[in-house]
Specification:
- It is a single chain.
- The chain is α/β, with parallel strands linked by helices and 568 residues long.
- A 5-stranded mixed beta sheet has the order 3-4-5-6-7, sandwiched between helices. Strands 1-2 form a two-stranded antiparallel ribbon.
- Helix 21 links the parallel strand 4 and strand 5.
- The longest helix has 30 residues.
Amino acid sequence: MTQPKTDYFSFRPKLIECLRDYTRARFVADVLAGLTVGIVALPLAIGFGIASGASPATGLYTAIIGGFLVSALGGSRVQIGGPAGAFVGLVYMIIARYGLPNLLICTMMSGVFLFLLGAARLGTLVKFIPHPVTTGFTCGIAITIIITQVKDFLGLAIDKVPPEFFEKMTALIVALPSFSGWTLAVGAVGYAILKLWPGRWARYVPGSIVVVAAGTFAVWYFKLPVETIQSRFGAGGIPQGLPEFHLLEFDWTHLRDLVAPAIAITLMGSIESLLSAVVSDGMIDDRHDSNQELMAQGIANFTVPFFGGIPVTGVIARTATNVRVGATTPVAGMVHAVTLFLIILLAAPLARLIPLTSLGAVLIFVALKMGEWDEFVLLKRQAKSDAAVFLATFGLTVMFDLTVAIESGMMLAAVLFIKRVTDTTQVHLLDEDAPGGQGHEQVKNLPPGVLVYRVFGALLFGAADKIDNVIRRAGGDTRVVILHMAAVTALDATALNALENLHEKLRHHGKYLVLSGPHTQPYFLMAKTGFLERVGPDNIVADLASAADRARVLIPAKKPKAASRAPF
């Protein structure tokens, strides 16, 4: 029978599937949804661009170009792409250390990495990142966003906020007496509006648009001494139109240094995008293609740097808004990008008057909503190891950067996982008094000199030392060691080496090793390495009873001495 051909590479955007049965009614719904999401995305795109240490135009270019590509080429029906709060701290740090040109290189490199992950069909690997790591850096990112907005929200007199956490906090605390009352008032009123804006109204008129529009009008009409986009960035802060394509400037001396931040952008982008896609799947009862989504994210991140854009990812808040206002296909996301382009094309002079404190209020509100603060309440109920991973990732994200946090969090989670596997792996001695029943085996009528061990769990490198205990106890009168491996779920090279040592020591002293009931993965690994052949096919048996029979063959019962005949 001919085996079906496997597609090792498949590039099929969800848009193609959606356009097959596309109707006029769905088009109207997508256009209306795209217009709404475009308006919602305007203050966020501008705010994240500024908060990242770049410019408002950079955030807009990212939302327009990146958002269009993510929707047109992605694997989700309703995903919205653009700049995200998750990248604020990381992007700010990269710009501070290496400059904006090198950030563009990092973004392009991450685009290549993301595309390769999707092309290699590794989109599902993101689910292996532990929950304490994701929640830890999500809360840490929320705090980072809030800290970056303190200057603009309060109107502090600081020329440039340092990128490092402790220097940044020192500078903000020292500058607190310089706060502007008018700036704080506009920002505080804006935050209050966001907090109190009725949910039923938000579907038609987003609170963030009300805050930005009201703040802009108040500052312009009353001529308040509040910093705006134009007063900080000049008339070109929000240009009318898209930038021209330009080649990137490679600094080969820094290229090795940029690999780590590029990987951090890749991890953050893949996690954020696929998490957003999963959330949207639950809202529309659909299933996204994670590999196609990663390839689309890769193309978007590879493309936007040539137009001055920063990292792109799928964003949960705008995607959820897209669903709530009636989007049905990726056309809505494409309309959202076109809407943003039309806004900067037609209304750039008005957008330049937006107060920075109003944007700060919007971002602080978004950050407080994105943080999973319940995790702090649940710390006492969680395992200490999970709590340690969460707190470590959170603290490192806030005090250092996302690269350090993800690397350290993953390493700590991996170490604790190994410890858990080791703790659950058991190697204990069975004897004739062992209780019967489920999970226990009785061993009856064994000849003297036979030790029977039951091995339970994954026998990996963290638990390999437990075989050493068998080696230490296999001396003296021991003739046969039986390892009952029916409950061994996995075996690796380190544990196999420990088994080799056990077999060699027994063989050297004329003793035997019998393996009982090995499962598929351990069996094939031992067979592939030749270990089963060295132990001997007759010493590999199906169950514990057969192992006992084999031990009786290896240690034959001694014949009783013949009684001497008395002479007549």
